[in-house]
């Protein structure tokens, strides 16, 4: 393809340059509008500058990719509600045998979770878990944060649903989920192990904390870090799509429901309910007794807020309430807490009613268990469908719709948690990249490199990997895949049909692992950095240079080892 007219080339480069600046530096001082607005601005300029027509702009939007991305977001939201990420956090802390064992677990869990739930989601939900565990064991946070970010990127390379660029590659190449997994999974396993070894070598001295200091949990000396309770380490969850605090089925919250009464942090940490229906309290003394009994109960998982109103003119004691309060709760699915006035006749409870309450507790727990099982089975069914080679977009959308139907509540609140800004960003990016392709510049540059970067030789494969590595850090990995994907595939198809599939897998592996090179290389890195910086009580600033010192050797070594495995497929 020859270069377009000079006017189109100049205007197309301006539009793409604006998109690139705002995508890589979303808070640039002269226009801090963010990535989403930046992609829309680039797309609009491509049309206004007549680089492409409005009809061509609409055609450039890849609906199958958007559908697959939407479906996986909804499934991730339901998995978060079903405590999947809480269990992942528990797996990190369960019977840990020291700092090096914990580092290995972080690498393994984050890699596997990223392959199934996307790397960005994994980083959102696990960053504070890891900060708290490091603080609890008197360990430096840096190696564990680097382990989370780097292993999440490496692990996400194994499946088409692991990251956005893999979604693009899977849809454009037609490679099935199973073929993708078989081609990249071995490289991912070896890459994670290699990355873990590099982390251990790099931070061996910092991880060699005396065992007695770890057992003290960092709180041995005066002025030392405060010990973190185990339940704090394993109960903090985030909504994957929005990076906001959320609760699960077990815990009440604003998760797909409206909750009139929000629990305070102190009650949220300490109180658990052993009787879930109605209960009356005549004074604050009674309430304190009830709270102590709630804390002693190890079987309950439901949380409640106790509200009292004291009257100075009442009777004696610590404090007399105006009247008894009745605490009722809707079904576990809705998790709404309602506190209302109760008649005086409800103040006394007989044994029969208590027995009835116990039966209702068991019934509600059973419903929660059935609902969680349905979420896990639906997700498993989606993965099976993907492995069978069914259409990936419709498999993910079907799983999302099944979960919304099984929830038996208005789907609006759940759908509001989907990151529509990311979907809009992709729409704008598709149009902007398509317009830049029409200028002819990408083709002209590729024609200069293509004769030397064919994958039928080791030198050509190495040069192609360097081009992908550099471009992924300069222009970001998804635009790199959109710019290079079809060109690399055509070049490889001229060698053999098998080489075409191999070229797509090489592109997937290198563009994903390239995110570990610098802190700006992938969204997962930025999420870990920002979540760690903003973490309350456990904040840590992961700097650009501290990441770069580890990222450069790790990326080069892991990319090279993985290339040897992928090219031998």
UniProtKB/TrEMBL annotation:
Q: One GO cellular component term, please give it.
A: plasma membrane
Q: Does the keyword Translocase apply?
A: no
A Pfam family annotated for this UniProt entry: CitMHS
* Annotated Citrate transporter-like domain residues: 31-514
Q: How does it sit in the membrane?
A: Multi-pass membrane protein
InterPro entries registered for this protein in UniProt: Cit_transptr-like_dom
**Which UniProt keywords are present, listed alphabetically?**
Cell membrane, Membrane, Transmembrane, Transmembrane helix, Transport
**For the region Disordered, what residue ranges are annotated?**
239-279, 338-358
User: Where is composition skewed (Basic and acidic residues) in this entry?
Assistant: 346-358
Instruction: List compositional bias (Polar residues) regions by residue number.
Output: 269-279
Organism superkingdom: Eukaryota
The protein's location, in the record's own words, is:
Cell membrane
Q: What main location does UniProt list?
A: membrane
Q: Where are the transmembrane segments?
A: 9-27, 63-82, 102-131, 181-204, 374-406, 418-441, 462-484, 504-528, 548-566
Which PANTHER family does this UniProt record tie to the protein?
OS10G0447900 PROTEIN (PTHR43302:SF3), TRANSPORTER ARSB-RELATED (PTHR43302)
Write down what this protein is called: Citrate transporter-like domain-containing protein
Q: What is the protein's species of origin?
A: Urochloa decumbens
Q: Source organism lineage?
A: Eukaryota, Viridiplantae, Streptophyta, Embryophyta, Tracheophyta
């Amino acid at each position: 393809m020859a270069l377009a007219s000079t006017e189109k080339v100049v205007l197309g480069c301006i539009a793409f340059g604006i998109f690139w600046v705002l995508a890589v530096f979303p808070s640039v001082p002269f226009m801090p509008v963010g990535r989403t607005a930046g992609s829309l601005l680039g797309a609009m300029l491509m049309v206004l500058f007549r680089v492409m027509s409005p009809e061509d702009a609409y055609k450039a939007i890849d609906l199958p990719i958007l559908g697959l991305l939407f479906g996986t977001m909804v499934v991730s939201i339901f998995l978060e509600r079903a405590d999947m990420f809480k269990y992942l956090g528990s797996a990190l802390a369960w019977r840990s045998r020291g700092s090096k064992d914990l580092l290995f677990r972080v690498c393994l869990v984050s890699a596997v979770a990223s392959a199934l739930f996307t790397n960005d989601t994994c980083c959102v939900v696990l960053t504070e878990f890891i900060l708290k565990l490091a603080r609890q064991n008197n360990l430096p946070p840096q190696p564990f944060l680097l382990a989370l970010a780097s292993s999440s990127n490496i692990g996400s390379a194994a499946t088409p649903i692991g990251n956005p660029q893999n979604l693009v590659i899977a849809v454009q190449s037609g490679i099935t989920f199973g073929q993708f997994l078989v081609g990249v999974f071995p490289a991912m396993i070896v890459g994670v192990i290699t990355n873990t070894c590099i982390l251990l070598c790099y931070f061996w001295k910092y991880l060699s904390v005396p065992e007695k200091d770890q057992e003290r949990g960092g709180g041995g000396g005066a002025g030392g870090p405060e010990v973190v309770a185990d339940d704090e380490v394993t109960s903090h969850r985030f909504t994957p799509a929005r990076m906001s605090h959320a609760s699960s089925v077990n815990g009440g919250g604003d998760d797909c429901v409206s909750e009139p009464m929000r629990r305070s942090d102190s009650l949220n940490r300490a109180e658990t309910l052993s009787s879930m229906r109605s209960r009356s309290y005549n004074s604050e003394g009674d309430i304190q007794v009830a709270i102590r009994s709630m804390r002693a109960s190890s079987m309950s998982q439901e949380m409640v807020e106790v509200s009292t109103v004291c009257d100075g003119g009442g009777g004696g004691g610590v404090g007399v309430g105006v009247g008894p309060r009745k605490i009722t709760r809707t079904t576990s699915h809705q998790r709404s807490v309602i506190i209302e006035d109760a008649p005086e006749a409800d103040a006394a409870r007989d044994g029969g009613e208590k027995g009835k309450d116990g039966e209702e507790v068991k019934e509600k727990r059973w419903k929660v268990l059935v609902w969680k099982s349905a979420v896990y089975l639906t997700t498993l069914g989606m993965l099976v469908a993907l492995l069978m080679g069914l259409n990936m977009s419709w498999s993910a959308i079907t799983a999302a719709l099944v979960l919304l139907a099984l929830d038996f509540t208005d789907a609006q609140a759940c759908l509001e948690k989907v990151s529509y800004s990311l979907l809009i960003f992709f729409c704008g990016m598709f149009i902007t990249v398509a317009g830049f392709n029409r200028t002819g510049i990408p083709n002209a540059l590729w024609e200069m490199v293509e004769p030397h970067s064919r994958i039928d030789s080791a030198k050509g494969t190495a040069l192609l990997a360097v081009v992908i590595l550099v471009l992924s850090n300069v222009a970001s990995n998804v635009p790199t895949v959109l710019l290079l994907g079809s060109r690399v595939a055509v070049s490889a198809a001229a060698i053999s049909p098998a080489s075409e599939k191999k070229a797509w897998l090489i592109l997937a592996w290198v563009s994903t692992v390239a995110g570990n090179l610098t802190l700006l290389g992938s969204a997962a890195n930025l999420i870990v950095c920002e979540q760690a910086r903003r973490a309350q009580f456990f904040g840590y600033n992961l700097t650009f240079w501290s990441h770069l010192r580890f990222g450069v050797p790790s990326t080069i070594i892991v990319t090279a080892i993985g290339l040897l495995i992928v090219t031998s497929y």
